[in-house]
Amino acid sequence: MRIISGLYKGRRINAPKKLPVRPTTDMAKEALFNILNNNYYFEDISVLDLFAGIGSISYEFASRGTKQITCVDQEFGCTKFISDTAKTFEMPLQVIKSDVFKFLEQTSLKSTIIFADPPYAFPLEEFSKIPELVFQNNLLEDDGLLIVEHSKHTDLSNLEHYNHSKSYGGNTFSFFSKPNLETEN
């Protein structure tokens, strides 16, 4: 895996093979960050990376100047790898080892972007818990986005707060946001 842009552009990060992860492809990451780059100043946002895996999305945000990044994963090997990599590159990552759903139920941390990359094999009920908990607990800033990565075979368009999806190869990003109060009236 490589970091595709920013301060650490081109740096390779080699995760141990034994970790149970499926990193986001470079093509999909590049497309996602092109979208985000048109809407946010990376230096001014906060990010919550759920099901962080080896941290590839978090490294991209850090490389682009984001200073407030929290990574959550329940796998000890993943959180240790992210912590070690963050220390090596001097990236501002806070790493939390926790079940993502328990974390979402208990935290009051608000973020501009919440990125979730759960296992593609999750049933729809598990996928639906992510936006449900994020919006129920008001964890997204007003101008923020929840982005859920999933297989192109999974359809999240019927979930509350769904906005739109973008697909790149076998990867799909579904975007969720708070309703715009100005357009509701």
Which structural traits does this protein have?
single chain, Rossmann fold, 7-stranded mixed β-sheet, DNA_methylase_N6_adenine_CS, globular, alpha/beta, SAM-dependent_MTases_sf
Your description of this structure?
With about 180 residues, the protein is α/β, with parallel strands linked by helices. It has one domain (about 50-180): 3-Layer(aba) Sandwich (Rossmann fold). Helix content is about 30%, strand content about 25%. The chain is built from six helices and seven strands, in the order αβαβαβαβαβββα. It has helices spanning about 25-35, 55-65, 75-90, 100-105, 125-135, 180-185; strands spanning about 45-50, 70-75, 95, 110-115, 140-150, 160-170, 170-175. A seven-stranded mixed β-sheet has the order 3-2-1-4-5-7-6, sandwiched between helices. The chain starts with about 25 loop residues before the first helix and ends with a helix. Mean pLDDT is about 90; it is low at about 180-185. GO terms for molecular function: 16S rRNA (guanine(966)-N(2))-methyltransferase activity; nucleic acid binding. Its EC number is 2.1.1.171. It is an enzyme of class 2 (transferase). InterPro entries: DNA_methylase_N6_adenine_CS, RNA_MeTrfase_RsmD, SAM-dependent_MTases_sf. It comes from Formosa sediminum.
- CATH-level-2 architecture: 3-Layer(aba) Sandwich
Average pLDDT across residues? 91
**In terms of structural class, how would the helical and strand content be classed?**
alpha/beta
Number of extended strands: 7
What portion of residues belong to β-strands?
25-35%
**CATH H-level superfamily:** Vaccinia Virus protein VP39
EC number: 2.1.1.171
GO molecular function: 16S rRNA (guanine(966)-N(2))-methyltransferase activity; nucleic acid binding
Organism: Formosa sediminum
Pfam families: Cons_hypoth95
